[in-house]
């Protein structure tokens, strides 16, 4: 019988690869074959070892799970959204893992059904709990209803690989109309009458690259290919405009985009390109009734807004409307009959602005259809939180729905009445157990990076925690793809805060918090700024007294997992424990393989090491797997999923094997653990209770290493 207290050791089976005259011996490349029974046995042995090492944490795990569960209103209802003659919403029931999507007849558009009472006339569209029966994993990739509200299509994934099977349903009778379209990517839409289904196919590298049209109820062998994207840098996405007037097809690489529109009044008609792609130009399109609104970076890297005829086919037809100012980054527009909403970042935080229509509603002779002199900001709640535009599907409306939350304030859903500025609170996320926001505090501080750049750090804690240098702390970060780590409320996080843990977020370069420059300073040949920024934030927490130097943990996922691997190599003694979630720790190997999903399209983010020896050398200098050294390491937990198509399970599996091989740490004092979900994807387990158990498992490991168990 295998001793589960002994760390598994993957056999070394050297495979050589040579690029640009440099030969690398990879002892653990064989772990990348998920069909190999020996690989599966190794992953299960790793799970057994992780369970054995943490067996004494069972009570702590259960306590954290119970805390999370006790704070959540398990039977709950989302705020209904008006769309045509219906209110659409979702609800959860106590004991149910998944949401139930529903609708109910709309009577008074200004007064949504109460969120704390049964809804009259409810029709269940999709019961996730029933649909998930018999499956270890369940995720809804799309749920869309035709513009006449008669037909629904939903796309389901039951393995975690983000490939979906589509079901089309007659909503009047409940009859299933079609199940013929399978193995699709994200992106499923219906024609206005529900007769045709539009869906996206993926290529061998699982890149969304083709748009197809399927007549509901017909043989898919007769489906029509509408658009194919041959450039492997570009991914395809599909959606519909507000009011379902247009099918919108977006093609994008990391630096260039192109949008096509299809008038859904003629679902068999042609696609029209709004403006042919130009290398380095990104743009986004929002149909605004009689014209288009276009957010683009043609002249300004932090983006401008233009308007153009509804029939535009060239950027030459774009006319200036709004330009971002200092400290601003325009993100996109939502257009309605009488106003538009601009989403932006301002001074590092999300913001909204309302733009009213001009008195003349027809864009005649080049006169702008918008009154830019009357643009105004929309605010809600305390400063420093995250505000965003929520789902408002109707084009003709007098209000826009917004959400607001912060690190310590639960999410509020609010209707903002445009004409008067009145704000109607529809719901604030319930937090049970007597939660008092005043018992917690949040602040934004600034660390100084190695090159002198100031890096923002969000610090969240109980209000009674003083910066006296004694507290355990958890520092998280991401720092890639211009993705921002904005304030958000988490019920689960309270289990950390109530144990005196300081929770901090490093807003490092490579993210989008401070505009396009902030992103560009943390990508390609500047990627290592992401890692040194994170270490500067860690130093700041210690120097300002928010963290005890020997009680600091780090956590990051996906590209943030690469960040974890890099900082462990750069400063292995800075952290007492590190959690790397689905970590991109074998970056060079992956980016050298064009058959992988994260390769050709990623060259604009990381560089192309196949073609450029300087990129190869630079990536090799920081890729975590390539740089594991024979030094003492902190306790490390790597978590992954077997069916993850974004970051292969093999990356953390190889990394852990390498750490076990060379680390000088005593495994009893600083264990290195690998935990693999055998039926899940990039986001881990799918059911809400399963996800809480997963969080409790991970945080129990971290808290134990920080010497904290009791609230």
Question: Could you walk me through the main structural features you see in this protein, from its secondary elements to its overall organization?
Answer:
By secondary structure, the chain is an alpha+beta fold. Among the domains are: 313-429, no CATH class; 437-681, Rossmann fold. It is 17% helix and 32% strand. An eight-stranded mixed beta sheet has the order 32-33-35-34-36-37-38-39, sandwiched between helices. Strands 3, 4, 5, 6 and 7 form a five-stranded antiparallel beta sheet that branches. A four-stranded antiparallel beta sheet has the order 8-9-10-11, with no helix packed on it. A hairpin with a 5-residue loop joins β30 and β31 (423-428). α6 packs across α7 (559-570). The protein starts with 14 loop residues before the first strand and ends in a 5-residue tail after the last helix.
Kindly summarize this structure in a few lines:
With about 700 residues, this protein is of the alpha+beta class. About 15% of the residues lie in helices and about 30% in strands. Among the domains are: about 120 residues, no CATH class; about 240 residues, Alpha/Beta hydrolase fold, catalytic domain (Rossmann fold, 3-Layer(aba) Sandwich).
């Amino acid at each position: 019988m295998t001793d589960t207290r002994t760390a598994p050791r993957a056999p070394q089976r050297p495979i050589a690869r040579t690029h640009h005259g440099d030969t690398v011996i990879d002892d653990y490349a064989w772990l990348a074959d998920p069909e190999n029974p020996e690989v599966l046995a190794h992953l299960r042995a790793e799970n057994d070892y992780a369970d054995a090492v943490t067996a004494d944490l069972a009570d702590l795990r259960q306590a954290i799970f119970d805390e999370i569960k006790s704070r959540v209103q398990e039977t709950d209802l989302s705020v209904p959204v008006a769309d045509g003659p219906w209110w659409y919403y979702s609800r959860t029931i106590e004991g149910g893992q998944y949401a139930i999507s529903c609708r109910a007849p709309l009577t008074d558009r200004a007064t949504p059904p109460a969120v704390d009472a049964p809804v009259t006339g409810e029709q269940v569209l999709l019961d996730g709990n029933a649909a998930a029966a018999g499956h270890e994993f369940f995720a809804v990739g799309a749920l869309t209803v035709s513009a006449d509200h008669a037909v629904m299509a939903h796309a389901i994934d039951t393995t975690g690989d983000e490939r979906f099977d589509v079901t089309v349903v007659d909503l009047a009778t409940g009859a299933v109309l079609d199940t013929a379209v399978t193995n699709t990517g994200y992106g499923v839409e219906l024609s206005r009458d529900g007769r045709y289904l539009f869906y996206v196919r993926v290529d061998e590298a699982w890149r969304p690259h083709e748009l197809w049209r399927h007549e509901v109820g017909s043989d898919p062998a007769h489906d029509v290919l509408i658009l194919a994207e041959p450039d492997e840098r570009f991914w395809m996405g599909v959606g519909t405009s507000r009011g379902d007037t247009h099918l919108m097809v977006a093609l994008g690489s990391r630096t260039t985009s192109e949008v096509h529109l299809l008038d859904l009044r003629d679902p068999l008609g042609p696609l029209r390109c709004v403006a042919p792609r130009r290398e380095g130009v990104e743009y986004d399109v929002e149909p605004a009734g009689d014209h288009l609104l276009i957010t683009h970076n043609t002249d300004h890297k932090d983006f401008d807004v233009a308007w153009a005829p509804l029939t535009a086919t060239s950027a030459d037809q774009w006319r200036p409307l709004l330009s971002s100012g200092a400290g601003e980054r325009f993100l996109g527009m939502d257009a309605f009959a009488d106003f538009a909403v601009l989403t932006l970042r301002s001074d590092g935080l999300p913001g909204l602005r309302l733009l009213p229509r001009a008195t003349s509603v027809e864009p005649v002779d080049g006169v702008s259809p918008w009154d830019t002199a009357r643009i105004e900001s929309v605010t809600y709640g305390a400063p420093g939180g995250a505000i965003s535009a929520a789902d408002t599907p109707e084009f003709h409306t007098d209000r826009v729905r917004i959400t607001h939350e912060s690190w310590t304030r639960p999410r509020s859903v609010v209707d903002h009445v445009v004409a008067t500025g009145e704000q109607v609170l529809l719901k604030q996320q319930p937090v049970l157990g007597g939660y008092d926001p005043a018992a917690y505090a949040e602040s934004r501080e600034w660390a100084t990076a190695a090159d002198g750049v100031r890096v923002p750090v969000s610090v969240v804690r109980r209000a009674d925690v003083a910066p006296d240098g004694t507290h355990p702390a958890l520092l998280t970060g991401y720092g890639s793809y211009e993705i921002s780590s904005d304030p958000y409320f988490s019920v689960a996080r309270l289990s950390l805060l109530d144990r005196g843990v300081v929770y901090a977020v490093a807003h490092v370069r490579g993210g989008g918090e401070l505009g396009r420059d902030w992103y560009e300073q943390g990508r390609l040949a500047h990627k290592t700024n992401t890692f040194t920024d994170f270490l500067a934030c860690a130093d700041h927490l210690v120097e300002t007294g928010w963290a005890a130097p020997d009680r600091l943990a780090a956590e990051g996922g996906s590209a943030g997992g690469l960040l974890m691997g890099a900082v462990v190599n750069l400063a292995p003694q800075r952290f007492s424990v590190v959690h790397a979630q689905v970590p991109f720790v074998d970056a060079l190997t992956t980016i050298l393989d064009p058959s992988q999903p994260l390769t050709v399209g990623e060259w604009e983010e990381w560089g192309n090491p196949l073609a450029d020896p300087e990129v190869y050398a630079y990536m090799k200098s920081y890729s975590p797997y390539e740089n594991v050294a024979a030094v003492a390491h902190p306790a490390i937990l790597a978590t992954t999923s077997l069916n993850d198509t974004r970051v292969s399970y093999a990356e953390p599996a190889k990394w852990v094997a390498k750490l076990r091989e060379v680390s000088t740490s005593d495994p009893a004092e600083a264990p290195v653990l690998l935990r693999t979900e055998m039926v899940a994807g990039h986001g881990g387990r799918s059911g809400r209770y399963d996800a809480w158990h997963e969080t409790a498992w991970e945080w129990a490991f971290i808290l134990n290493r920080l010497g904290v168990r009791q609230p």
